[in-house]
Amino acid sequence: MLEETKIKTVPRVVDNQIFLLNGHVYNTVINDHNNNNGATNYAYENGTEKVQSGNIKMKKIQNSKLNNGNLSNSSSDDDDDENVYEIKPSNDETEILLSGNSTEIDPHIPDHETWYAVALQVFIPFMIAGFGTVGAGLVLDYVQKWRVFKEIPEIYILVPALLGLKGNLEMTLASRLSTQANIGNMDKRKELISMVTGNLVLTQLQAIVVGFLAALVALVMGWIPDGNFSIRHALILCSSSVSTASLASLALGIIMIFVIVSSHYCKINPDNVATPIAASLGDLTTLTILANVCAILLKTMEKHYWLPIIITCLFLIVIPVWIVISYRNNYVRDVLYYGWSPVIAGMLISSAGGLILDFAVVQFRGLAVFQPVINGVGGNLVAVQASRLSTALHRQTKPGIMPAGVKSACPNPLSVYFSSKWDSVTTRVLLIMAIPGHLVFIYFISRMEAGYNFVTVTFTILYLIAALIQVAILLYLAQWFVTFVWKHKRDPDNVCIPYLTAIGDLLGTGLLACAFIILSVFDKNV
Q: Per its UniProt record, what PANTHER family does this chain match (predicted)?
């Protein structure tokens, strides 16, 4: 039995033309059959037309009423008298009847953001994030001389995996909450509290599990080359990894929530701000915690051998508690079921980058300081693009239904980088932004006289080439991967960023090592 209810607050308005709710678009039965620009694939439900794909035309509706399950319109002489009604079917799914002026709408454009608006919103958080990665690089360059890093070289394998948790957890959290903010689900305090609580608990659960698995992977990868295994090293790695992952995730999660909610109320697009801010403190915080926890445990184990065991067991014991709380929260229940493969796969990919780092830091004394920078910048930029693409899809339809003109096949590289569409414009902005960003970061590192004490023109050129190749590949992959995941009825907010940032870690570390190998031909002091 259908009910008819006047809508008091419309969740999302585009150009005063379309009302969107929960990613669904509903309108009267208007079909432009002469439109050859896109498919016209519609599903009719209770006298309304659910737009699945194709360009659509809207016309004004006055005093729409529902009679025996059929939509009827009573005319009015007042063209400004527009009524919008909410129809709730028996399955409690919400549908919308639209009112608006006669026009043709391009469903691809999520916002009318110009390239300079995107650049202005992204650049400041991007630079802040970049200096955060520079700080992480300086920390890594400093702590690599510590006793614990020399005695337990497996920590180098652990570093990219734990730093990658920023992409696997915090950036994914930022993307999820940014999407919720942009589709209007943060406007009610009760929903906001439930959303925040569920996401914090879920990230704690994932951080502990992935941190423990990352330690095991680091041990295996460290054991394979020479066959040596130390139970002492294993205990330090496991306890350090889970405690670092949990503490860093909690701190960064709270900061992310504050940034996204503040951005939402300040009318700033959280997609442009949240993920770079997550990265600005992520690498520095995680690496600082990891280095100090490892050093403390190595020292205390000489008298208190049981301490790492207690720490690891305490974190593992709370896992069932976090599972129950996450399961009872509607906002993260699906992620609890389906959000594991991306974060675990991302951790494994990042660990492969850790193997390269473990080899490269021994061969090239100046590489360590640049590794977090090149990986962090690439991850920041691709996370912004993936978050924006995901939000655009959420605003138009639901997972599994492709908007008109959006293809899930591998896109033409020329269309990705050089077309006039909003996503191509954003791609160019982000790619170009990498150049001045890296130049500033290289200059800052050289002034700090860290690692490679003199930055030459040859080094700068090789480094920029490596960085641009990394970012270009990542932005292309984001364009394809987000739509591919959407077509297969998965939420890109939960899937894409972990894979993309992990691939960025692997590409960045590998390309940076290649740059240093080539540089060593010209400079024997590298």
A: DIVALENT CATION TRANSPORTER SOLUTE CARRIER FAMILY 41, SLC41A_MGTE INTEGRAL MEMBRANE DOMAIN-CONTAINING PROTEIN
